[in-house]
Amino acid sequence: MTGQIPHTFIEELLARTDITDVIGSRVNLRRAGANFVGRCPFHNEKTPSFTVSPTKQFYHCFGCGVSGDAIRFLTEYEGLHFIEAIEVLASRAGLNVPVEKEDEAKRKKPIAQTAPIYTILAKAALFYQKQLRQHPFARKAQDYLKSRGLTGQIAKQFSLGFAPPAWDTLVNHLGTNQSCLQELLTAGLVIKKDSGKFYDRFRDRILFPIRDRRGRVVGFGGRIIGADGEPKYLNSPETIVFNKGTELYGLYEARLGNPSLTELVVVEGYMDVVTLAQFGNKNVVATLGTALTEKQVELLFRQAQDLVFCFDGDKAGKEAAKRALPIILSYIKEDRRVRFLLLPDGEDPDSFIRKNGQNAFLEKLRHSTPLSDFLFETLTANLDLNYLDSRAQLITLAKPLIKRLPTGIFQQMLYERLAELSGVDADVIQGKVLFAKKKAETGTKKNVKRPNILPPTPACRAIAMLLKDRSLISCLPSQHNFKLSDGPETSLLYDIIEILKIETTISLEALEQRLFQEKKSQLTFKELLAIANSIPETGIEQEFLGAMQRLQERTQEQAMESLLIKAKTGTLSKDEKAHLKNLLDLKGKN
User: Fold this and answer.
1) Which residue among 134, 173, 370, 533 is the one 20 to 30 A from 517 at the CA level?
2) Residue 234 belongs to what domain range?
3) pTM of the model
């Protein structure tokens, strides 16, 4: 629908809509005098402060301040577009949404055309669920799900089903008349042979119903049972109600379990979503076997402001993360936060959490990499910034990505970070100042010292963060060891931590006097303070812990390399052998 809806129709629709019924079907409400109250679905609260007024047809939360009518509630709560919300309310009221004549022809999915498709998909989902419980051949599907650690309760929550191995089980169940067969074909549930006969699309597979934001089944994902067979996953084709690039598996279930979502974890597979939910993670969704799309990112940010993209630890997962970067950057705003989690090589969320448990997975999430760090880590992975051509290449790669961000503080900070890594002034990178002019201006100044470049090491960032907030020392794990890591900054960081453990309120002046009289860092105290001032307070604790984790891993790698070299000479002591074994085990887990 591209035309405007008459204002008179919207007024009539709201007049015929009972807001208490609309909200009460989604939020637990109780009567309190003339109004109804409940816990706000838009923020976490213990004492109900969310009020719905039947007389005013209006809702308001005295806790977080949200308010509006029934249309506003559906757009905010279910993430619907304005037109979608109106269509939902119009359907409830038995009204047709008025559309201008030229727009009527352009509408791709009129209700009269899609309603029977939603109905037959819902019938198919119920049929497949019943087959998982009762079909004679369903035992192997049940055993497979149990082997993956799934319970009957989680299978019921996600409406998992089983497609029997026969070619025409669904066709025979739902009807073989021409009208029904055409609906099955339109819904993507059957395939038509050249001979004109129809057969089931899904056979001998575990089925994952895909629901839209309103809970309607729009398609299915079918997984082979066990490890043999191709393709591993078979998805419904694109239909008039299903587009892979605009839906997210598990979003409906996540919203049911979390009325006020603040964070979503995005994974790659159906089984990842279900298994993580089994372990208690109720905020996980998955893309539908395709690369992340702009529509999906837009939908994600309409549900939550914090996103963690969790990719498999294989080459394909890393490539998927790289492909997602440009799309995500286009939707970043000051109040949105994105992190990346790449699991160990060969692991996916499903296998990782079953092998290591919920606490280990949550720990991985806590140490996930902020968007800014992931961007530059990805771009510099195959570059040696000691060479000028690599720095130039970094600028070429980074500029178009940073330009995708809306103009603002975050974009400017990324330009500054790029300047630090490349050694080229941020104004020159952005084209605000021509390089020749900048060089001429610099040449006119006497005793101009080339600015130090922040080395791409976690140690510098960790020092700067401690200077900005010395209370970060309290969140540092008691067991840490990074003293072997390369670079003078690492040694300086170690000294700062040792001081702050004893003197948590020491002034910056005292720190400078005690540690910066000697040349322990490539950067001066003033330069480190400047870096500290550029670090946003939001997420600083997580970024600090991430930097320390990377230092710890680097220390372990150095120790392991040293011991492996010594092992070749056959001179390792018993303690050294045990230490090497522990390091190799740790590397295997990570």
Assistant:
1) 533
2) 108-242
3) 0.64
